[in-house]
Request: fold
Amino acid sequence: MVYYYFYMAPIILILFAIISMILIPFMNKKWIMGISSTGIFISLLLSMYVIITDNRSFYTSSDFFTISYYTYLFFMLFSFIGLFSSLSLRNVKERDVSIYYILIPFSLMAMYFAISSNNLISLFVSFEAASISTYALAGMPKEKRTLEASIKYFVIGALSSGIILLGISYYYISTDTFSIISVNGVNNFSLYILSLVLLLVGFGFKLSLFPFHNWAVDTYTGARATVSSLLSTASKIMALIIMINIFFNIQYMKTPYSSHIHFTTNGILYILFIIISILTMFYGNITALMQRDVKRMLAYSSIANAGYMAMIFSLLYYDSYKTFIPLIYLVIFIFSLAYVIMKGGSFLAMENFEAYSKSTTLDDLSGLSKRSPILAISFTVLLFSLAGIPPTLGFMGKFYLFYTLVENNFWWLALIGVINSAISVYYYFRVVMYMYWKEPRVEIKKDTLLEMVVLLMAILAVIIGILTPYIYSIMG
Amino acid sequence: MDDILIYGVLLLPLVFTIIPLFTGKYSKAVSTALSGLFLLYVLYIFIIEYNRTVYYNMFTMMNGISFQVLLNSLSIPLVLLVSLVVFIAISYQNKSIENSYFSYIFFLEFSLIGVFISYNLIFFYIFWELVLIPSYFMLGRWGGPRRDYTSLKFLIYTHVGSVFMLISIFILGWKDGFNFSYSAAFPAIQNIPESLKGIVILGFFLAFFIKLPSFPFHTWAPDVYVESPTTSSMIFSGLLSKMGAFGIFAIFINKNAMGSYLPSWMGILMIILGLTSIVYSALVALAQKDLKKMVAYASIGHMGFITLSAGVFVYAMANNLTSYMDGIKLVGSVGSVERSTGTRAMNDLGGITKMMPNLAFIMVGGFLASLGLPGFAGFISEFSVVVGTWIAIGFWAFLLIFGMVVAASYHIWALQKTLFGPYNNYLGKIGDMLSNELWPLLLLLIIAFILGVYPYPIYHLFYSYSGIIMGGV
Reply:
């Protein structure tokens, strides 16, 4: 028993932090901030310790949750970005921000439970908990812009929850179970397909896949940059992992009429996923080309990145899709690690501008290299990483993703991904251009803590990028 | 050779990258000294390793991706060329530029040397992409008035080529179990289905021919060469295009790599592209008013010779075409000569010999070398390309001769318009070249002359390398 408690320590600790912040009255802002950041930081360290010491031997499962090595792998990412997001909340000028310090660890905990659920009921409950806390975060501080972002996010979120619930009920009707790891049989084939498609759509909203992406741009642009850094990374990766858990774990059924692969449920789903991922990539990249607001550009590029992530579902094509799960976790882990560091870091860099000038257009960034060389060089490294220039981490993430696709015969899909990656170079490098060889137009006040955070992200993007092959061979 | 020497070839420029940032107003002197010492170092390696092949596995990252280094008769001269051109460019540069400029040059040197010596496709690709970063900054921060447009155009053009190459590399690795060493990856082509083989070849083709630049993909080059500051232009035209040439000869037509899997029409295609580049660039250059732009097209023409020689090689298997790589040596040197003089004389057309005798000397020498006058290195390579083309395609070689005649005429014409004739008094009183501009270019001219009279040291290397290309080991 001691064994299990030890491995549950990260999540228990974060729970204690939340409870202490709620229950102990009259704490001032500094204390709340300290407890929140320290709690997240220690649980980050503990989950790293779990990952390093315990190479996939830890595994516990119940009717509701399967907690394993991979859960901590992704929880580490969530708490990593949560830590920096909560640290940079201190710039927010509002009378009572302590509630937001409570919401961040709460959403992290909910995300942890969401990615470890193996049952649609526990999945839905924890997914909602994670979503609702982020709705509130998006509306902070009280401004017209953030409120608009929050309301849009909330309405679309509520819609997607409805769709997910409908999907869950169809799922239950057609399979007589809520479990996603053990399905014994299907009563109604078409209802089963419908339920899976509804789940795809519902979680696709969260992942901002193409036809369901509209909220994402306005929310990421409208919300405070430090919140966007959490929303566009942790909450998206949560949706992705949930989708992987669902679609790579459940049992697919052949139709009564045909034994051909295209008439199985996964045959239908993989085509749907491929179409969606291609559209998402092209939509995100092409619209990002036209943006002059850097934050909005980052929002569109995060839609494009969702397209890259969704490409991994093409592996559903194979009958042996279940054997891919460890590989997929590994590839997606490296991609999401890159994504968290570079996208989170970029949004935190935006926070530097938000806090003082309220505007993040290219003109605001011009001549940044003269005003703040450290911020300019770190943001440049992050943009190189987003563009996928070696040897940064962003290149490695795309490298392993595309490599996995090519290895499994989807070379043409990888080709489309690579073309998109080439398109994206334009809008990332345009920002670099403005930062380095345009004259400064507006003054910004320097914020050393934020600068150091962005610098840290840039250093990580390079160092982990160089070490990725080692990480891959250790974990693979 | 000691392992430590190979490490030095790659890592010294990386160390040099940070030095100019901390040397204050002496950064130019320090950079010149460092690049000069590095040139001597590479020269030492060139001499002790003359015409030998050194293979060394530096470190293994993961199964199949290890940093393998190969120094052979193709890559050692190219490394020497890189260090020479960097040394010349840094010496030529005047002092009034930010220190970081020298850092970018050293970083570019590091990535270029990485491209030329790595023997693993993944590292080849990584270095190939790394080249973009310093060149983007060198072009964008210190470029001419249209630098925004040009730097993004350059970046996207070359990046698109590279990413297609990445997919080709993946497909190669896919068929041999994730091993990206040249010796393991390329034989895997025979396991690839026919339909994919075309994709693999196309990926490499795009990467190399865009970088070269060859005819249909050349439009980035005039912009970039014109908009860059002189020093960057020297490096871009002298070295960046050599990456494409290196790729073509080390990978594309090398029988040990992709050569034996190329379809036969690829040879014809390369001949057509090469001839088109030569004739087209000559005709376009004839119409240029801007001297620097003319020089840029001349450089595209030189690259046409490289494409042509590669095509002829595949198609006709002409063994006597051993000298094609000498064009690289030549264009590197002569291209820089032209470029620097070209920049200075760009707006000063008309009889400037009177005011600038030294410039006139260098410029006449450079232009004559560039049009392929006997006695300069260019003549030897162009002559052998002509012979090879004649053997390969017979009568149609007249197109090449036509291109060369036009090239000679626009060179001479440009000289006549700028250097000779009545002095354009509108220019006022202008000074001659500064000494830091004169002696690097003089050095290049002397090298081009020596290699024109006594080409053996370089020729012998490429002769033995052509044996490797034909399938020897």
About this structure: Chain A touches chain B at residues 384, 389-391, 395, 399, 402-403, 406-407, 411, 414-415, 418-419, 421-422, 425-426, 429-430, 432-433, 436-437, 469-470, 472-473 (CB under 8 Å). The mean pLDDT of chain A is 86.
